[in-house]
Amino acid sequence: MNPTAFLRFTARRVAEMAVTLLIASFAVFGALYLAPGSPASFLLAGRSPSPEALAALTARHHLDDPFALRYLHWLGDVLQGDFGRSLTYRTDVSRLLADRLPTTLLLVTMALAVVLTAGLVLGRIAAVRGGRTDAAVLVATTLAIGTPSFVAAVLLQGLFAVRLGWFPSSGAGDGLLDRIWHLTLPAVALALYLIGMLARVTRTAMLEALDSEHVTVARGRGVPEHLVIRRHVLRNALGTVLTTGGLIVATLLVCTILVETAFSIGGIGQLLELATTTKDFPTVQAVSLIIVALFMTVNLVVDLLLPLVDPRITLGTRGAAA
To answer: Are 248 and 191 in contact (CB under 8 A)?
Structure first.
């Protein structure tokens, strides 16, 4: 791979991501003004302030300024890490994010590890062994895909936390090891649907690779079967699997709202659910923007890894990698 071309491609993708985030920030900020009622009514959260307090609120949030100027004020604060003040928690939103974001990132990371491990292994076994094993994997993945995250959360919580007592039923724990223990069941509940999806994607990609000409040639040359599977089949299938990475992470970020609520985990998913319920708009804006930024970052990483994983892909095909 040409290093200069790779750096140019990376710079272009980063610039595209910055533009997308800018557009997303405009949409997130503008949603306050598209909703019924005035922006002040959201910020007041149903309270009836004195004229002096209302004037102070108007001045603080630049509500008398033109819309474009208000957006620029807000964007400037966001770029400095200031997302405003939570109407529900009466504290800076940036402090809430700093307290809760690490828990969500750990939960998503654990769930992603479970998805990749189980999905790739099941997909490989189904494609290579075939027959009854393939049928059993297809049945299992069908059940996994048909089980929503919140249903999986309730079932796992009832069996392994309440009845067997192997895992805590709620909370995020204290310290790394205790936190991992607390987040094990939520991570499995979050991962279950995606395990089924990734296993099927892996199986299909490997079956296509098994029928390819270069695999037939490798077998004809006497290359051991395990090397054929590892070097020619699985590696070629990884490109297809990797392209689903953005969808997997996006699903994890969305479903974490349900799972965190079910297990009472103090992450940004539960924070977003509570903020939406209480119309805590500054918090909703901040969490929404963070989720968009995480999703865009994952897509950027996927685009950069694709040419490294699959040599057939050069810079320029997927969005700009060919």
So the answer is: no
pLDDT in tens, 90-131: 888 899 898 888 999 999 999 999 998 999 899 889 888 888
Between the alpha carbon of residue 265 and those of residues 28, 39, 85, 174, 256, the distances in Å are 25, 30, 22, 12, 10
Contact call for residues 309 and 242 (beta carbons, < 8 A): yes
SS3 317: strand
Q: Are 230 and 215 in contact (CB under 8 A)?
A: no
CB atoms within 10 A of CB 152: 23
281-309 helix and 235-243 helix, angle to the nearest 10 degrees: 160
Angle between the N-to-C axes of helices 149-156 and 176-210, in degrees from 0 to 180, rounded to the nearest 10: 130
Question: Rounded to whole angstroms, how far apart are CA atoms 65 and 53?
Answer: 18
Q: Where are the domains of the chain?
A: 93-309
Q: What is the pLDDT of residues 147-174, one digit of tens each?
A: 888 888 888 888 888 888 888 888 877 8
Identify residue 82 by its one-letter amino acid code.
D
Task: Quote the CA–CA distance of 240 and 271 in Å, as a whole number.
Answer: 34
User: Rounded distance, CA 133 to CA 126, Å?
Assistant: 6
DSSP bridge pairs for 155: none
Name the pTM for this structure. 0.80
Helix-, strand-, coil-residue percentages of the chain, each rounded to 5? 75, 0, 20
The DSSP code sequence of 179-240 is HHHHHHHHHHHHHHHHHHHHHHHHHHHHHHHHTSHHHHHHHHTT--HHHIIIIIIIHHHHHH
Spatial separation of the C-alpha atoms in residues 269 and 265, rounded to whole Å: 9
CATH of domain 93-309: 1.10.3720.10
> How far apart are the C-alpha atoms of 270 and 276, rounded to whole Å?
10
3 state SS of 92: strand
- Dist. CA 288–CA 295, nearest whole Å: 11
